[in-house]
């Protein structure tokens, strides 16, 4: 086990220290230039931090230096596109780093090794086992509802490679495709089949290409779709067609047409918007044949009214400052997260999901919003850890953020062999779906310099809690593997917990 390096740092000494080091590529051992390195302080027991996080970049030789670092505990994190985040002191590649102690005039050298994100490779094969080029291939996270993780097209010999994947399990699926003789292929999961329950779960690791994820698409008819954009003004319009195997785009103008071909049967969404995004149109479709003559009528973005309630009573947004964030969903992907203004605003129509952050002394009890649309969407919403919503193209949509002023707390200490463990990540997992929606998913924090942790403003209910240097992202499987402690959080009641760090058996 790696040492915490705490005894070497006398906190009573006020002089600053120095942290320097080098970032290497794990696979080659070569120095990595221009890597972002962040020095993250561990909070004191009273919640104070000795400094704000500080960031720098490695030089051409891969080295970095943080000078005049105030005494305290720090975690070093290196990040770079295409690579997995790395920290000094990681025990396993997908784990977290351990803290470094800085005392008066101390100096520490850290070597950090970065690993490439994983990739899935394979071939798209015809009925005779011959590779086919130009076929779209999509990777999904290996759980329902289907969530897009990456995509590509098969190349020469039918080979494909989907890079940039985090460690975990994935499904691979080919998209609709028209062959040279005019016949078609339907979207098919690897190794073959129309549905994910028959698909191969592909395990992705860092610094590794997971191979032989071949797909043999099923034969079937593909369809075409065309139509016209109607507007009360002139201007360019982008039409986006979304399906479970990706997005396709058609640039047109008001009063002009659009067309898509080689479409597989099943659910699709059409979204059209002006370049200024001031007007849009949205339509859900379930293709079972060619669909000509679709009319998309662009109208001004619909009005959305966001209200805040406390204990069933509406209050002014200035009285209880709430932060509401949301993102628009389409079948293929998720739009970037945006903050939603309270009061009146305008949002593009379609499916959305929201989360709210309550101010101190409150917790989010619910985010009530309209919900409708296809049955497929409703089934997916049953598993969604965000609050699902439907923004209608016509009329006002109302979103109500409902708060309670009776939050719960959970607190405790992480110890090992009778000694506090600072800088370890403590994860808090609400057991119910509604609890995870209200809490904004699972919660996490670093234990302070005395191993303490304190979660405030929680929805009362049942939770699982675990502390570990070996977990980066928590999920339901890891909750069971780690034997996370069961605990109930109640209003105005807290029995301090004592946790031991969990060490992964892999």
Which keywords apply here?
3 helices, five-stranded antiparallel β-sheet, disordered N terminus, Immunoglobulin-like, single chain, mainly beta, 506 residues
Structure report:
The protein folds into 5 domains: 17-114, Immunoglobulin-like, CATH 2.60.40; 118-210, Immunoglobulin-like (Sandwich); 226-300, Immunoglobulin-like (Sandwich); 303-404, Immunoglobulin-like, CATH 2.60.40; 408-499, Immunoglobulins (Immunoglobulin-like). It has 3 helices and 43 strands. The strands form 11 sheets. Strands 2, 3, 5, 6 and 7 form a 5-stranded antiparallel β-sheet that branches. Strands 10, 11, 13, 16 and 17 form a 5-stranded antiparallel β-sheet that branches. Strands 21-20-23-24-26 form a 5-stranded antiparallel β-sheet, with no helix packed on it. Strand 36 (408-416) and strand 37 form a beta hairpin. It is globular and about 75 Å long.
């Amino acid at each position: 086990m790696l040492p915490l390096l705490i005894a070497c740092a006398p906190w009573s000494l006020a002089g600053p220290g120095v942290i320097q080091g080098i970032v290497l590529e794990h696979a080659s051992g070569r120095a990595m230039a221009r890597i972002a390195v962040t020095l993250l302080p561990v909070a004191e027991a009273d919640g104070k931090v000795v400094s704000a996080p500080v960031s720098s970049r490695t030089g051409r030789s891969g080295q970095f230096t943080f000078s005049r670092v105030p005494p305290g505990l720090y975690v070093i994190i290196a990040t770079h596109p295409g690579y997995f985040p790395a920290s000094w002191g990681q025990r396993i590649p997908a784990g977290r780093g351990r803290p470094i102690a800085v005392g008066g005039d101390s100096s520490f050298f850290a070597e950090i090794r970065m690993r490439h994100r994983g990739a899935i490779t394979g071939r798209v094969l015809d009925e005779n086992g011959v590779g086919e080029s130009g076929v779209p291939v999509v990777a999904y996270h290996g759980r329902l509802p289907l969530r897009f993780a990456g995509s590509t097209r098969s190349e020469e010999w039918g080979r494909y490679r989907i890079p940039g994947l985090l460690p975990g399990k994935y499904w691979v699926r080919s998209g609709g495709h028209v062959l040279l003789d005019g016949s078609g292929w339907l979207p098919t999961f690897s190794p073959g089949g129309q549905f994910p329950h028959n698909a191969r779960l592909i395990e992705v690791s860092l610094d590794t290409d997971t191979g032989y994820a071949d797909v043999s698409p099923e034969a079937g008819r593909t369809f075409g779709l065309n139509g016209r954009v109607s507007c009360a003004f002139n201007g360019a319009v982008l039409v986006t067609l979304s399906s479970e195997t990706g997005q396709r785009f058609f640039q047109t103008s008001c009063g002009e047409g659009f067309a898509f071909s080689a479409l597989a049967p099943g659910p699709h969404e059409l979204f059209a918007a002006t370049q200024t995004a001031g007007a849009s149109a949205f339509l859900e479709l379930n293709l079972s044949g060619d669909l000509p003559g679709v009319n998309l009528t662009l109208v001004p973005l619909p009005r959305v009214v966001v209200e805040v309630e406390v204990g069933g009573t509406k209050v002014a947004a200035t009285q209880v400052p709430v932060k509401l964030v949301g993102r628009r969903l389409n079948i293929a992907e998720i739009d970037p997260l945006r903050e939603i203004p309270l009061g009146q605003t305008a949002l593009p129509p379609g499916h959305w999901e929201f989360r709210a952050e309550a101010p101190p002394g409150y917790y989010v009890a619910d985010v009530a919003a309209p919900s409708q649309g296809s049955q497929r969407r409703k089934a997916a919403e049953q598993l969604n850890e965000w609050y699902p919503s439907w923004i209608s193209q016509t009329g006002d949509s109302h979103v109500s953020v409902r708060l309670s002023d009776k939050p719960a707390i959970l607190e405790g200490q992480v110890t090992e062999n009778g000694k506090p463990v600072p800088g370890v990540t403590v994860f808090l997992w609400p057991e119910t779906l509604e609890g995870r929606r209200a809490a904004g998913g699972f919660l996490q924090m670093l234990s302070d310099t005395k191993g303490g942790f304190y979660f405030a403003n929680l929805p009362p209910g049942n939770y699982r809690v675990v502390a570990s240097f070996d977990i980066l992202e928590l999920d339901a499987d890891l909750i069971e593997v780690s034997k996370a402690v069961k605990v109930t959080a109640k209003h105005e009641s807290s029995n301090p917990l004592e946790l031991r760090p969990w060490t992964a058996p892999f």
